[in-house]
Amino acid sequence: MSRRALAFGGAIVLAIAIGWVLFVALPRWYRPTPAATATAPQAPRVEPPQAAAARKITATLYFVSDDGFSLVPAQREVAYAEDVAEQARAIIEAQLMPSPPLVSAIPGGTRLRQVFVTGHGDAFVDLSPEVSTNHPGGSLEETLTVYAIVDVLTVNLPAITHVQILVDGKEVDTLAGHVDLRHPLAKSLEWVVHDTH
Question: Bridge partners of 123?
């Protein structure tokens, strides 16, 4: 009787064990893991480096007024540079670009050769010979040319307090015989019209 009970008990235990293996253990072993069934997580998509919009600053440039007797300010977007000399270069290059219908105070064909800035706040702007050879002459016209260059740097860049204009890498007395360029010049807004209305 005890053998039968023992055998019967063993059969029940065996049946439970087989049932557990068939219905619990085997499905777990052979069921794909959630990681396998789920779509593998995508790595972050790396876009090809795109040219980020270049940082800009708003600079005040100067052009000849309608009556030809003064300079008028105009706002333009200019490439940003960390270095003062590089920022000065970007501003002068913007000043030299045609900007119709506004009239440039600087003779056509003038190119920027180089800009140097000293630790004392003096900027040396080296322009191509056209600034002199293409100049129409006249004391007022020469004054407007000189102060368009001087003011565009001293107004936009507080680190620059004086500007000396060079021509083709050399110091010059004047551009067209009137304005003394032998020394760096300070900002002068005397020639700038602030209210154009």
Answer: 117, 163
pLDDT class of 194 with cuts at 50, 70, 90: confident
Residue keyed to tokens 């795109």:
50
Q: Is the pTM of this model over 0.90?
A: no
pLDDT in tens, 5-36: 666 666 676 667 666 656 665 555 555 554 44
Q: How far is CA 54 from the centre of its chain?
A: 4
Of residues 9 and 116, more confidently modeled: 116
Q: Is 160 helix (H, G, I), strand (E, B) or coil?
A: coil
C-alpha 44/C-alpha 35 separation (Å) is 18
Cα–Cα distance, 150 to 126 (Å, whole number): 12
Between 32 and 56, name the one with better pLDDT: 56
Task: State how far the Cα of 122 lies from the Cα of 162, in Å rounded to an integer.
Answer: 5
Contact partners, residue 120, CB within 8 Å, separation at least 6: 161
Output 189-196 pairs: Cβ under 8 A, ≥24 positions apart.
189/151, 189/155, 191/70, 191/71, 191/143, 191/144, 191/147, 191/151, 192/62, 192/70, 192/71, 192/72, 192/73, 192/147, 192/151, 193/65, 193/70, 193/71, 193/72, 194/73, 196/65, 196/72
Pair 142, 175: CB distance under 8 Å: yes
